[in-house]
Amino acid sequence: MCRWMAYQGLPVYLESLLFKQEHSLIHQSLSARKSSVTVNADGFGLGWYDEREEPGLYHEILPAWSDSNLKSLAKHIKSGLFFAHVRASTGTETSRANCHPFGYKNWLFMHNGQIGGYEALRWQLDRLIPEHLYQERKGATDSELIFLLMIANGLETHAEQAIRVTLLQILDLMKDKNIDEPFRFTSVFSDGKRIIAVRFSSDDKAPSLYAKQFDDHIVIGSEPLDHRTDSWTLVPAGHIAYLENNHYHTHALFD
Amino acid sequence: MCRWMAYQGLPVYLESLLFKQEHSLIHQSLSARKSSVTVNADGFGLGWYDEREEPGLYHEILPAWSDSNLKSLAKHIKSGLFFAHVRASTGTETSRANCHPFGYKNWLFMHNGQIGGYEALRWQLDRLIPEHLYQERKGATDSELIFLLMIANGLETHAEQAIRVTLLQILDLMKDKNIDEPFRFTSVFSDGKRIIAVRFSSDDKAPSLYAKQFDDHIVIGSEPLDHRTDSWTLVPAGHIAYLENNHYHTHALFD
Amino acid sequence: MCRWMAYQGLPVYLESLLFKQEHSLIHQSLSARKSSVTVNADGFGLGWYDEREEPGLYHEILPAWSDSNLKSLAKHIKSGLFFAHVRASTGTETSRANCHPFGYKNWLFMHNGQIGGYEALRWQLDRLIPEHLYQERKGATDSELIFLLMIANGLETHAEQAIRVTLLQILDLMKDKNIDEPFRFTSVFSDGKRIIAVRFSSDDKAPSLYAKQFDDHIVIGSEPLDHRTDSWTLVPAGHIAYLENNHYHTHALFD
Amino acid sequence: MCRWMAYQGLPVYLESLLFKQEHSLIHQSLSARKSSVTVNADGFGLGWYDEREEPGLYHEILPAWSDSNLKSLAKHIKSGLFFAHVRASTGTETSRANCHPFGYKNWLFMHNGQIGGYEALRWQLDRLIPEHLYQERKGATDSELIFLLMIANGLETHAEQAIRVTLLQILDLMKDKNIDEPFRFTSVFSDGKRIIAVRFSSDDKAPSLYAKQFDDHIVIGSEPLDHRTDSWTLVPAGHIAYLENNHYHTHALFD
């Protein structure tokens, strides 16, 4: 399973979240507490918003803990809304094009989970990408594909509906092809203003999603960033969460 | 333009062709003589046949001249049929999945040229790949795509016809989309027994293709490997060449 | 020869100098105008000052033109004093530890040139590094070594004298060892406030060093960044230049 | 701690040891059984002997499990004496120059352990390398340093004595500098004919060293390659082992 975190609040240097937490993402990339896969060393990435409309993006195929550039960038880049992701590949190549977060215009997306039977479905899934978005298909992951389908289904104007439609579209295809493996999808989006996070699975094992509100910021991620796990809210499976202006609310994705 | 060479003959260490020629491919990667693009530093690759049925493959994103592994591998790998390629990207990412040669079962393929208007056509071209081959689509290049279409069109059983059919299929699509840019395609295939090379372009500027017969081997490539250019045969545009058992013949691809 | 540029003035996004000039460093890395070595693809680096005391550093072994991270970083990092460097190796490995600029506390350094007979002298030169600085010796280049010797000789408190002493120290050692090859050294330093650049060679072929004053900034570099070469000042060989508060002056290094 | 294995016997494809064992080195790189450090993802390397006098070398900074080249090379390279190593850095950079095995002429060397207080001693240790070997100092690890000191102390002509002298030389220096941390050194050498392995530590926690004799080959390594640990011989701490012509013997290094 991949691991990720997203931050919204007072602008801070990225290092304060990436390196200076007792259970920071960089530390997590070496050893996991809540997940059965123990190593996230198949590439990582950062996305951050600043004065420019489109977010900054940084992707690297080295393990996060051994990238000297990351240490310096995290000391010098300041942001009030940023994403970080450490990857454990479920099969596709370790290349920059396969690293999260994915960017499209002012949007960022990253993901933990997988489409069951993806290899068998990829031919049909890729055909769902409309022509005008196809040049954005740069890698081979199911994550990038899901993001493009959500954009095609209207993410920019009515995000929650686009997410629902896309999940159902993929589940339908899996059903047609008699895929028994689950579709697990815990993910986070942003347009630069708010953060939208989703915890979903077609079975009862949705990957974890934790949030915590601090005085001047909120953090949401696949795992808690400190060891007081009970001070973090576990977002219920099948729920969508919104983080905006340091507020946080959640509701069922499907009702 | 990319540069490449293929060797058939008495088994030799790869270094004898890759490093020890006065105009070797590694030297070419730094500065070109016959081409207007001067640097081939966007990844490179090797493919070689030995006792095993499937060829060995080595791809790297560093410039060929600065890869210390290449020097050692070329000193220790011996082969009687091998391919080498240095890439100058026409737009797609510098990643291993985009490096030539491409392999499929016992086949190798590499290529110099490009499909005019590829970005505009990629959506339609990718849809021509049949489902059973789609898992072989690992990168985003037109080269890998052309190879997969040729396999779909029967490369393994009737190579020459598969090549013709695929070229026409792509030209038809370009015509439908009113693409004015040319389709240039100088390429080389092998099944481990013989080498098939093609020099083709939809305009009158087919990338160069040179062959030379030595006592115990034949070399074919995008450029001569020594400075006696007039001792190399320039394969005519629109022709296909066969190299087998140290013999070499060529004929028009379309008549 | 390597190529580099340094900027001082109104804070700007790095891309305005790295990508948006008609003869930008990234373009130069592909093909040179003023230098006989044509490709600078053996790694590159950035160093930039912002609110923090120590500068940011970014080093990469890919050619600058094919690093997707560089494009995004240059769009999002803003600085009023920054360095950029594209490397053409004179023998040492293409690794991050060998990429310029080199950093030490609040100082940055980068360099074009080489110590004649460096391989033969490295054993003795490395022994000149004092024990307290030896942990800063991370790579194997002559450039990093020269920087450490200058720090040892007092760069932080009396820069110009430290530069002179170090150049003479190296020339003495070359003389002792009967090295006939020249010591060429065109370089730039900063403490975050001012830029110091040196154009020096033991023969009459000091690598070029050009400066140009604009309304709100100054640029100094190994080559002009636009094609109006005559609007750039060629710093005379054997001179040291100071850039501070948008002013620029130069005088002979030795008199 | 690093992990490594060495093979001597009937020539085999490297994959038979690297990938096809239930507890192969590639699997070990992801999760350890006998060691407290859990991830070996800071580079890896191969060294192998064939018809040529100098061994082949392959070093890579990606985790071993995600290097597509390694899979193909291991399928196509055959050897009767080879080394493989997966690295967990104890502080120095993840670069190819820091990856094991190290090569010198016909010799290979790799290592698990570390010199206590290495950072504090590096200045003095590097000064022990004689001038004629200094050009072989390409990285910054204690491992490369130890190998060069052993060569300086006569490894090529009287290996066992050179090993003893070097260990004592380093221990003396540590004593002079009042280093309390231990010097742990479990390592393996070859000249292409025989394998010499050493298990040593200045404290009572020498890193493990296991050997096993099969019908037509012997394997020695930091961990057993299968789960029948009791079928492997644990070389006693303070011992040196010799593997030659499919025979194996061991004796105390110091008496």
Automatic annotation (TrEMBL), chains A, B, C, D:
Domain spans labelled Glutamine amidotransferase type-2: 2-246
Keywords: Glutamine amidotransferase
One Pfam family recorded for the sequence: GATase_4
InterPro entries according to UniProt: EgtC-like, Gamma-glu_amide_hydrolase, GATase_2_dom, Ntn_hydrolases_N
Listed name of the protein: Class II glutamine amidotransferase
Organism: Marinomonas algarum
